[in-house]
C-alpha cells in the first residue's frame, strides 16, 4: 500500500511538472538556440517550418512545414497558419493555410504567386499558428497559439 502511494505521488508530480517544463524555454525567449532539440508535447499546439523552400525564376515561393492544433474543450476552433517571408528588401505576407484543430500533426504548404521577387538563397520566415476563439463573443478573437522564426534556404523549384 505504501509503495502504491509513493508511485502515485511520483506520477502526479511528473504529470504536473511536464507542462511547466515544456513552458520553461519560453521564459528564455531572448536567447536563440537553433541547435537545441524541441520536444513538443502531444497536448499542446506546435508549429514547424522546413529548412528549405522552393522559388521559381519568376520569384514565386512555396514553403512547407507541419503543425499540431489542439481543440480546447468541446468547441470547434478555427485556426490558420500565417507566413511572412523576408529576403533583402522583399517582405511579404504569403497568405494563410486553414488548420484543422484535432490534436494530430498535419503538413502545411503555402504557395505564394505574384507576391514579390524572391530569389535563391537565405531568407527569414516568420510562421504563426493563429486560433480564432469565440470566447462567448459574437466575433471570433484571434490569438497566437504557436510561432516560429527561422532562416530558410530558397532553392530552385520545379514549378
UniProtKB/TrEMBL annotation:
Ordered alphabetically, the record's keywords are: Signal
Highest taxon, organism lineage? Bacteria
User: Which residue ranges does the record assign to the DUF6299 domain?
Assistant: 45-155
Family matches, as InterPro entries: DUF6299, TAT_signal
Matching Pfam families: DUF6299 (PF19816)
Q: Which residues form the signal peptide?
A: 1-23
User: What organism is the protein native to?
Assistant: Streptomyces endocoffeicus
Entry-linked PROSITE patterns: TAT
Q: Does the keyword Thylakoid apply?
A: no
Report what the protein is called: DUF6299 domain-containing protein
